[in-house]
Amino acid sequence: MRSRQLQKSLMNNQPYYLLVLLVGLLLGCNSPDPIVDSESEQASTKTLTKVTLQLNWFPEAEHGGYYAAALHGFFEEEGLEVEILPGGPNSPVIQQLVSSQAEFVVGNADQVLTSRAKDSEAVALFAPLQNSPRCIMVHEAAGIKSLADLKNMTLGMSAGRAFALYMQKHLSMENVTLVGYPGSPAVFVNDETFGQQAYVFSEPFVATKLGAKPLALMVSDIGYNPYTSLLITTQQRIDTDNELVQKMIRASKKGWIQYLKNSEETNQHIHSLNEEMGLDILAYGAKVLQDLCLPDSASQEHLGAMNLQRWTDLRDQLIEIELIDSSVDPAAAFLK
Predict the structure, then answer these.
(1) pLDDT tens digit string along 185-197?
(2) What global pTM score does this model have?
(3) Is the separation of the CB atoms in 289 and 260 below 8 Å?
């Protein structure tokens, strides 16, 4: 009743009624919208810094942490929009880095040192794989139990690569015929006198599925063990935009921790990008990576860490096989 009386009273005094109505409308326009979250709106309109990450190979498990960082929003949390570009055979990642075709690349520690011998100023930022996955795959039936036993066989590998030169320097390899890396286990499966270079979480799994019984002999067992799948940039970028570099490192580390914890969703994404990487081989790869990324049950806090002694040992090995000289400073090759 009171509301009807008030409405009638206002209508009888139209100027006053119109004033009240106008004030109400103005207050309504200026009042906060309870549905809009101002923080979410700001986050959604936040400008992300676009950068490119160039891979050294086609998308696979060795890149899992970087893809996890993108898929789970860790790059975006750091204000980054990262475009991950696939690589391939002999992908020239260092050249792409120094020519500014990519702000960051993925590669191995020996690539960093050999490129620095040519004044690349490449710098390793983060080392997810503490132990190299590089191996030589042979048949169990061949009776070869270690790399020192390699003899009377054909070996498919990239003869000019640092690991291959180191093997030839330190192993007798009696009556071993070197041929080019075949790119797949197809030749291996059909010839028990054939061995080939491989990554322990990749080719041996494929060969097993094809009916072979491979044995993976780790190159690290003879002392050649460079950090692998490194996040790399240039010294110039560190000097001019260290904040960007630190953001990439933080997001990449979160991505690798996530991938080692639960790789399933990321593996599905990698499979969508590279159908040759089946979900079964990706799951196997993620499992093998646990010990390569966190050897001796290391804590996640130490994931990606590097030390000067490892870099110095690698520098000395590369000098021994005459790929670089003593002018290359190992301390300048990685971010402490």
Answers:
(1) 999 999 999 999 9
(2) 0.85
(3) yes
